[in-house]
Amino acid sequence: MFCTNCGKMIKDTARFCPYCGQNVNPAPPQNAQGPAVQPQTTQGQQAPVQPQTAQKPPKSGKKKGGIVFLIVLLLLLAAGGAGAWYYFQNQDNDREKDQIEEEKDAEESGEEPEEDAEEEDEESPAEEEIALEEETPPQEEPEETDPLEEARAAYEADDFTMALRGCDDALQEDAGREEAYELKADIYLEQENLEEAALALCQGIEATDSQALIDKREELIGRVVTKSCMQYNSLKDLIGMVQYDSEGNAIKYTYYDGSAVSSIEECDYDSQGQVINRDYYNGSNKKQWSEIYDYDADGNLTNTTHYNAKGREEWEDVYEYDYDGNVIMQTRYNADGSRSWWDEYTYEGRENVTKTAHPSSGSTVTLRYEYEYDLFGNPTYCAEYSASGDQNYFWEREYNGLGDVVKQSSDGEINYVYEYVLQ
């Protein structure tokens, strides 16, 4: 017979279709509780007709049919995958065999074997990176900023710390930038740090030899007035103090022995700023001596006349000069006009000076001095030698940017340190 659901031929005795699981020979229903009781009806009434419903096949049969179908499908997929793998594996083996045969043929003929198209198309990592760089558009590099311009901007904003840092950065890049030294000096002047301003200009002059910086330093020196100077020994004890007038002339020297005043010197000046009189007092402010100074038309000191406490002349020093303004002779005369002693000086440039001393004892002493100077003409080193060439002593000096001595040492040991109050 045929299945009423899928139409396939099945056995006549089958209750279910083995292909779709349809119930094709349902058994008559059994009522476990006996025959159904028909409801009683009254005369003239008909019993209601019960609607008949189609019989559903058992669920177990349908589930079994689905499992069988799934298993068959999986087997087919597995068989297809195995066949595909076997096919491609054989293709790879054939390709390798062909390549080996080509290499053998090339070796026999002496030609290089041809590479696969895939290998020819492959690029090395370096080539890929170069190609990527060529394809990538170049990025614009950030513009480099000038530290000096940043320093100027900071200076305008009154940020002096950043302004000084910008100047230093600019000078680190180029030590010959004249504008950086000038700006640095202006920053210190704005802070009323006159010595640092002058020092910045000195450094700029040494690095650039700029006339503009030289003129600016000279102008600064002309503006600065020294009010006082404190002198200390190597132990940092105060041993002297110098006071200045409004023109920057040292008018009073006070020397100390510990906390007590040991002596005082007072000076007077002419309109040219040359000292013309000096009075010396002891710690009790009692006058001990005085000196009068005379000058020629070139401003060279020509005479020093020394007087005792009572105003009586004791001696006079007379100076002679060469055409370059160098002292070539100093002679001391007694009050009666007799010569006490004299010194003669000869020069080999300003670096070498020979002094021939003729003391009152009559024995001649020859001494030689060697000098060194800084860029601004300040003597930084002096050594004294005897006639036999032995060094007797030497001294060294350091200066601030204004040309004032700030440190002096003798024989390598610091003797004096100077601190200035400027305005």
Structure, described:
The chain is rod-shaped. The longest helix has 51 residues, at 59-109. The chain has a domain at 147-220: Tetratricopeptide repeat domain (Serine Threonine Protein Phosphatase 5, Tetratricopeptide repeat, Alpha Horseshoe), CATH 1.25.40. It contains eight helices and 16 strands. It has 423 residues and is of the alpha+beta class. The chain has a 16-stranded antiparallel barrel with strand order 1-2-3-4-5-6-7-8-9-10-11-12-13-14-15-16. It has helices at residues 59-109, 117-121, 125-135, 147-156, 160-173, 178-190, 194-208, 211-223, and strands at 226-232, 238-244, 250-257, 260-269, 275-282, 287-295, 301-308, 313-321, 327-334, 339-348, 352-358, 365-373, 379-385, 391-399, 405-410, 413-422.
How far apart are the termini? 133 Å
Question: What quaternary form is this?
Answer: single chain
Give the overall shape: rod-shaped
Q: Find the CATH superfamily of the domain at 147-220.
A: Tetratricopeptide repeat domain
Question: Regions with pLDDT < 50 over 5+ consecutive residues?
Answer: 28-61
Q: What order do the helices and strands follow? A: HHHHHHHHEEEEEEEEEEEEEEEE
Global mean pLDDT:
82
Number of helices: 8
The percentage helix is 25-40%
Radius of gyration, CA atoms, in whole angstroms = 59 Å
CATH class descriptor name of the domain at 147-220: Mainly Alpha
Q: Kindly report the spatial arrangement of strands forming the biggest sheet.
A: 1-2-3-4-5-6-7-8-9-10-11-12-13-14-15-16
In the CATH hierarchy, the architecture of the domain at 147-220 is Alpha Horseshoe
Strand content: 25-35%
- Say what the CATH topology of the domain at 147-220 is: Serine Threonine Protein Phosphatase 5, Tetratricopeptide repeat
How would you characterize the largest beta sheet? Answer: 16 strands, antiparallel, barrel
Number of strands: 16
Helix-strand makeup class: alpha+beta
